[in-house]
Amino acid sequence: MKNYMILIGLLIGVSLTAQTRVVKKNAVKANNFGITYSLPKTSLIIHAEVIKTTSKAGPYYQYADRYLGVKDPVTADKVSYELGKISLANKGIPDPENTYIVEFKSGTVAPYAYLTEEGLLCSINAEYTAEESELDIIKKQKTTPATATNTSVFTEELLMAGSVARQAEVAARQIYRIRESRLNILTGEADNMPPDGNAMKLVIEQLEEQEKSLTNLFTGIVSKEIQMYEVDEIIPHDDMEKEILFRFSNALGIVDADDLGGIPVYMNLQATQKAPVLDPKEADKKQKATKGIIYNIPGKANIDIQMNQQTLYKGEVQIAQFGSQEGLAPAMFEDKKAPVKVYFYPETGAIKQIIQ
Can you give the pLDDT at residue 10? Predict the structure, then answer.
């Protein structure tokens, strides 16, 4: 088993979509009316949301209470992390031990299939459009940008003030002048009123931005951004108990599973529906009896993820390798008047729908 931690979506405007692409395969004479496909085995992907909080003290925080009445300004630069939502996705990956060639008879009506780029079966005799997965949606999430101070608020008077105490006094006066100007415009008492409603809106927005930037010099700035992580390639073959996915630190965020600087985040997996293990003779007999288009009947398992004995995620998931295989006879597809259409779940290899 290999665990990878991947940080997703750190830059605004960068598209990280990875929606499944599908390929149409026709069963024609050139390929002996055969289509090669693979059944999937289940690879679990854990998504961890981490909220990063960055606190930056303003240069005049000591005077926040005196001039602005702010009792709790940021007094020191600090970065902290909080573990947010944990979610889980089922990703099907090709199982090299379950790759098949399905052969259609030449009389079959235009047989074709849709496969993923990895060769997993999506549909037979039916148009298939890949749906956006939970992983695709998560990868579209954007990081919240940090707030910056608008340097245009540093007037000549403020810059020429000698001591920090004097600068704080000047900045506070500017804040109150801005508030007074905004109030005069809103009440119609300003000497030079904006010519129309749009101009007024623009002026008010500029005044509010200047006030906020000056106020930040006293209160400091607290910004939050969301970082998304993946823990990939967890391929269960049996029950799991206290499998360490990663470790988490309030000071460092997510760290590797072997980094003792963080608290372990565990996963427990227990099969609730699992096909019986066949002896070699029984397995061989079943394999010979299973013909045609082979598909999965996946098993099921309960999963819970914990940290500090607190449950972060709990749910049921289908596990392809816990189940069994059955077959659809190729004769189903030989009716020229009403060819059968079959849809599959490419993540599990199970039948989604049969249309006759």
Answer: 33
